[in-house]
């Protein structure tokens, strides 16, 4: 049986983006419909709609943290602070593995630049690097959840 990290990486290899792959791996665990999870996370791929900003594996992990610890009552400052604290710890741990949470830094190319995006596709940069980011994001999540 595949663990969550392998399941998320497999989802990416099937054609879903990093954010979709991470969030959808945890969706059922938190009562979120799988298809809805894929839709919610879709725009976060490629560092937010291919803008090279925050890595999709990271944003997917943030959403999972929110599903577990997010506040549901406006006055619940304790839940908000707990989720923020866990997100900060997630970022620290992910950065200790990869030095950044920015997609363009992680890939070494800027998806927002058409020429660089073409190079990414030609060299299959995402296919070779993103599964590692996804697996590490899930690995960190598993320790924090």
Q: In percent, how much strand structure appears in the residues?
A: under 5%
If you average the pLDDT, what whole number results?
96
Task: Give the number of domains.
Answer: 1
Uncertain spans: none
Gross morphology: globular
SS field, number of helical segments: 9
Order of helices and strands: HHHHHHHHH
Report the major sheet. Answer: none
**Pairing-aware structural class of the strands and helices?**
mainly alpha
Approximately how much helix is present in the residues?
over 70%
The span between the termini is: 21 Å
Describe the structure.
It is a single chain. This protein is mainly alpha-helical and 145 residues long. It has one domain (4-139). It has helices at 4-14, 18-27, 34-42, 45-48, 56-69, 77-98, 103-107, 114-123, 125-144. Helix 1 runs antiparallel to helix 9 (125-144). The mean pLDDT is 96.
Describe the structure using short key phrases.
single chain, 145 residues, mainly alpha, 9 helices, globular
Topology diagram in text:
Elements: H1 4-14, H2 18-27, H3 34-42, H4 45-48, H5 56-69, H6 77-98, H7 103-107, H8 114-123, H9 125-144
Please sum up the structure shown:
With 145 residues, this protein is mainly alpha-helical. Helix content is 72%, strand content 0%.
